[in-house]
What we know:
This protein has helices at residues 7-20, 60-65, 80-83, and strands spanning 2-4, 33-36, 40-43, 46-52, 55-58, 71-75, 89-90, 94-97, 106-111, 117-123, 137-144. The protein is an alpha+beta fold. The longest helix is centred in the first third of the chain and has 14 residues, at 7-20.
Amino acid sequence: xxxxxxxxxxxxxxxxxxxxxxxxxxxxxxxxxxxxxxxxxxxxxxxxxxxxxxxxxxxxxxxxxxxxxxxxxxxxxxxxxxxxxxxxxxxxxxxxxxxxxxxxxxxxxxxxxxxxxxxxxxxxxxxxxxxxxxxxxxxxxxxxxxxxxxxx
Length: 152
C-alpha cells in the first residue's frame, strides 16, 4: 500500500534524516515521496530510505548516489556471497573500518576491490574495539543487495 507524503511530512522526514546522516539535502519539498507498506520511502519512484524501528535508514541505492552518508566497514571478497544473502559481517572478513564508528551506529558495508556498497548494517562493536576482536559477528546485516528493498 502506497501513501503519498504531504509537504509537511516531507519536511519532517528531511529533518529526521539530517539528524542521522552526513548530508542534508536528500529530500526536498519538490520531491514526490511515497511511503510503501509503512516501511519504505520512495523518492521520485526510487527506494531511498527504509524504517527500522524508530530509525529511518538509507537504502543501498541512496548510498550509490550519495557516497559518504554513513561510515563504512570494508570486507574482503570472500565475505561478499554471504553478506549479499543476509549474513552478518564476521570479524575475519573485515579488512578495514572507520575508527570512529560507535557501537549501535548504522554503517555501510563495502567490498575491498571496488568500494561498492553491498549492505547496510548496525555496528555491534565500536571501531576502536574492532582491533581487539578476532572472531564473531561485528556488523548486523539490515539491508543487502538482492533483498526486498533492493529489488523494488
